[in-house]
Specification:
Radius of gyration: 31 Å
Helix content: under 10%
Keywords: Cell outer membrane, Ion transport, Iron, Iron transport, Membrane, Receptor, Signal, TonB box, Transmembrane, Transmembrane beta strand, Transport
Membrane topology: Multi-pass membrane protein
Largest sheet: 25 strands, antiparallel
Family: Belongs to the TonB-dependent receptor family.
Mean pLDDT: 89
Protein name: TonB-dependent receptor
Structural class: mainly beta
Number of strands: 54
Shape: globular
Subcellular location: Cell outer membrane
Number of helices: 5
Length: 878
């Protein structure tokens, strides 16, 4: 018995010893997770066998109690490609993991213009996103240039920092701005209307390092989930500090005047509270030869997020005070034929690098909206002063109810002032018109001397507008209830938009010269180059003031049904109603008004355009329209799907309705013109492979539009009232093999004027500036021991289009190349060199004239893309 007991004791002791040794002989795995730029990734999920953990604030992880041998380490983090790495465990093993950005992945969750956040693969809409890395590679010289990276969107970004003309899938640019498209910041509109004359929404937006990504939805549910945006939404989404870190970036223009500093930092304060702050400051002449500091100002943004057990609250703030030069058409030489023209620069004016702006043409005296004397500085250019604050919250109320609330208050004011060449002719021609023997220099080193009779002269109209009050407020609340596989959303949208603006335009004579152009006098008709307070060449059309307020109310309902694991459908309905109230006044002529108060009535003061406040007209009309959208998405396999959608959406007409007789004397609007409608159909295919993805969408659109535009005729303004049809195919994709990747998009659009009420002869023609193909391709290659460096280039191009709707003068197709290289100097510190338009390609985007005299030299007024500009950036990320 004693032997048995002793045997059992020894056996138990031996077993315990073996278990003890076994426990201490198990191995561990640790390491660090970083992104493709070497920044640590905190909060990444790391799993090995059946054990898992997350990385700490320094990107480190550790898992113990692992058995020796080969195993797989899986690391995932939202917005990045999941990494699976084979590791052989032996004792204390180290395995560092580098994650790559997943900017174009169809698994990425989208939030813009959709009922509920879904992956791209599961969404029945066309939506794309641009990451911070892609923006840095593209090195846009202005926010408007960023839009060129988005498929289906044609952005004429030749106006400078803002004032871009933006069209989507053939929905036309009949006038200017982005009439059927809205720009959002963090899901809320910057302006309720995207084409306010000289107050486009993009003037009040800046791209900087506080942006986490830019999302864009084309067509689809944008019709019903936002007002006045049937063509789509471009949404700037800010970083929120969920991951601790920041950056400091210094950029300089190597061959042009630019100096810019960006900064941003965000961090969790506690487990439930986090913040992010950032902004930029810049100054410089800009990409063209202005002769003075034309870009000066900056932006500051901040947000804070508080998480609760069942939701979160986020508050944010933005202050923008920036001065950026605004480019308008410039004199260009054209020869050849209308169908096959040759575009080139004049001998003393380079279309790629020059501008009519000049240090000799800055001060501008006008009569203000209330009769006061007012001075403007042409160096102000596009001068937004914008203060914004807002917030959002989202909570789970229990029993499958959720509530989401967003609001934003924008305080917008500022100025838009830039020289517009209303006419280009010889000095002799102008001298004859003014009844003087010759023109003389009004200022500059040759002041008082005669100007050569065969020299070229521009009749300048100063597009000088005062943005008195563009304040707007938006509130969007929605309640969601889940009933099994069906999600119901009830929403209520309320918004107010002020449009208080004064147009105070003068007329000058300016020599055609690329740098330091001087003003010219026409004898006693002129004073310091000014020959008119107003624009008599356009019938003194344009001095005006309007003070309008627009109230928008839009309840909406949306439903989303998951039929099964592969098929989901959604539908939405929105009812927009609006009230327009206020007053507006046009121009009247005041005779013998001593504007400069020198006690003498000089030539320009004999007849002065002033705002006709004695005959102000009321604005007093209501409008309403119904929008709807329905679509479905079907998963063919785990990595590919198809979708179909039909939508009808509206866009209310705002200030541009006031330009002509469409508002009657009692303030009511002519029936049928207060809102324009867009009908769209889409059929799409999406596929995500191991190293590639593709997104293809066929589309059709039918558009009705009422608008006004500057047509350069005797009256200066032309009316537009017509319908358009367009159809086409949009392709977006990416491919990666080892260290090489390529991203790109191409859009084919066939568009026509279907029914022109004002000019029926245009029926069947192609809308002006509408190309058959637009494309963007970006090949890149990573190199270095840790693949920490990369270089590549983007090619952005378009096929030919027509200058005007009569389809005579062709604007040739073009493609320009933008190389880039980024080198990591040390951990966290990198240098990048970007070149825009490296080959100095001329790319005409806008022409005032519709035809030329063939087989001779002509001078037209046009805008081209900027010539070659090179920037060097040093960035430190921590």
């Amino acid at each position: 018995m004693k032997k048995s007991t002793l045997f059992l004791k020894n056996l138990l002791f031996l077993t315990a010893l073996l278990l003890f040794n076994s426990a201490f002989s198990q191995s561990s795995l640790s390491g660090k997770v970083t992104d493709d730029k070497g920044n640590v990734v905190s909060g990444a999920n790391v799993s090995v066998a059946k054990k898992a953990t997350t990385t700490d604030a320094d990107g480190n992880y550790a898992i113990s109690g692992l058995s020796d041998g080969a195993t797989t380490v899986t690391v995932s983090y939202i917005g990045m490609k999941t990494s699976k790495k084979e590791v052989v465990i032996s004792g204390a093993t180290t395995a560092n993991v580098q994650l790559e950005q997943e900017a174009t992945s169809l698994e990425e969750v989208v939030v813009t213009g959709v009922i509920n956040p879904r992956s791209k693969l599961q969404s029945s809409v066309s939506i794309s996103s641009v990451s911070v890395a892609q923006i840095e590679q593209g090195a846009p010289r202005a926010t408007a240039e960023l839009f060129r990276m988005l498929p289906g969107i044609k952005s004429e970004s030749t106006g400078g920092e803002g004032n871009a003309n933006i069209t989507v899938r053939g929905i036309p640019i009949a006038s200017g701005g982005a009439k059927f498209l809205q720009l959002h910041e963090d899901g809320m509109p910057v302006m309720q209307f995207g084409d306010v004359a000289f107050g486009n929404a993009d003037i009040f937006v800046r791209n900087d390092q506080t942006i986490s990504k830019v999302e864009a939805i084309r067509g689809g549910s944008a019709s019903t989930l936002a007002s006045n945006s049937p063509a789509g939404i471009i949404n700037f989404i800010s970083k929120d500090g969920k991951k601790e870190g920041g950056s400091l970036m210094q950029s300089i223009g190597v061959d042009f005047g630019s100096n810019r500093t960006d900064f941003e930092y965000g961090s969790p304060i506690s487990e439930t509270l986090r913040f992010h702050v950032g902004g930029f400051f810049r100054q410089g002449e800009g990409p063209r030869n202005a002769g003075y500091t034309a870009n000066l100002g900056g932006q500051f943004k901040a947000n804070m997020t508080k998480e609760f057990e069942k939701g979160y609250v986020r508050l944010y703030f933005k202050y923008l005070n920036d001065r950026s030069i605004g480019y308008l058409p410039m004199p260009v030489k054209v020869s050849g034929t209308n169908e096959n023209p040759n575009w080139s620069s004049l001998s003393n004016f380079n279309i790629l690098h020059d501008t009519p702006h000049s240090p000799y043409f800055l001060d501008n005296l006008t009569v203000g909206a209330d009769g006061e004397r007012r001075r403007s500085n042409l160096a102000d250019g596009m001068r937004p002063v914008a203060t914004s604050f807002g917030g959002e919250m989202k909570f789970d109320l229990g029993n499958d109810w959720k509530v989401e609330e967003r609001f934003r208050q924008n305080y917008h004011n500022g100025r838009f002032v830039s020289p517009f060449p209303a006419e280009v002719a010889t000095a002799a021609s102008f001298a004859t018109g003014f009844g003087v023997p010759n023109l003389t220099y009004a200022n500059g080193p040759l002041a008082g001397q005669n100007f050569a009779s065969n020299g070229l002269v521009m009749r300048i109209h100063t597009f000088d507008t005062e943005i008195n009050n563009f304040n707007n407020f938006t509130n969007d609340m929605k309640l969601t209830k889940k009933f099994g596989n069906f999600d119901l959303t009830l929403g209520y949208y309320k918004a107010f938009q002020n449009i208080n603006m004064s147009w105070l335009w003068n007329s000058y004579l300016l020599e055609v010269k690329g740098e330091n152009a001087a003003l010219l006098n026409a004898g006693p008709n002129s004073v310091n180059g000014l020959y008119a307070y107003g624009v008599p060449a356009w019938g003194n059309c344009c001095t005006r003031n309007y003070d309008a307020n627009y109230e928008v109310t839009a309840p909406y309902v949306a439903g989303q049904l998951k039929v099964n694991d592969k098929f989901n459908v959604d539908m939405s309905l929105r009812f927009d109603s609006g009230k327009a109230r206020g007053s507006y006044a046009g121009a009247t002529q005041a005779l013998n008004l001593d504007v400069n108060n020198n006690g003498t009535i000089e030539g320009p003061e004999a007849s002065v355009s002033v705002v006709d406040n004695a005959n102000r007209k009321p604005i007093n009309y209501d409008y309403d329209y119904v929008s709807y959208s329905f679509g479905g998405n079907y998963l063919l396999t785990d990595n590919q799907s198809v979708f179909a959608r039909y939508s009808r959406g509206g866009r209310a007409n705002a200030d541009r309705l006031l330009f002509g007789p469409n508002v009657l004397n009692d303030g009511s609007a002519v029936p049928g013109l207060s809102a324009d409608m867009v009908n769209q159909a889409e059929l799409g295919f999406k596929r995500k492979g191991q190293n590639s993805s593709i997104y293809a969408t066929a589309f059709y659109a039918n558009v009705s539009e009422q608008n006004w535009d500057f047509g350069g005729s005797g009256g200066g303004i032309r009316q537009i009232q017509r319908k358009y049809n367009s159809y086409g195919l949009e392709l977006e994709g990416n491919y990666k093999v080892k260290n090489f990747s390529v991203n790109g998009s191409v859009t084919y659009t066939k568009a026509e004027i279907a029914d022109d009420v004002v000019t029926p002869a245009l029926n069947g023609n192609k809308p002006r500036r509408q190309a058959d193909f637009i494309y963007n391709i970006v090949p890149a290659f990573k190199f270095g021991s840790n693949k920490q460096h990369n270089f590549g280039f983007s090619v952005i191009g378009t096929t030919k289009s027509y200058a005007q709707d009569d389809n005579k003068l062709v604007m040739p197709g073009y493609a320009y190349v933008n190389p880039f290289i980024n080198v990591e100097l040390t951990k966290g510190l990198s240098a990048s060199l970007n070149v825009n338009n490296v080959f100095d390609t001329i790319g005409i985007t806008e022409v005032e004239e519709g035809s030329i005299t063939e087989n001779t030299d002509n001078i037209v007024r046009a805008r081209s893309i900027n010539g070659r500009t090179t920037s060097l950036t040093i960035a430190y990320r921590f």
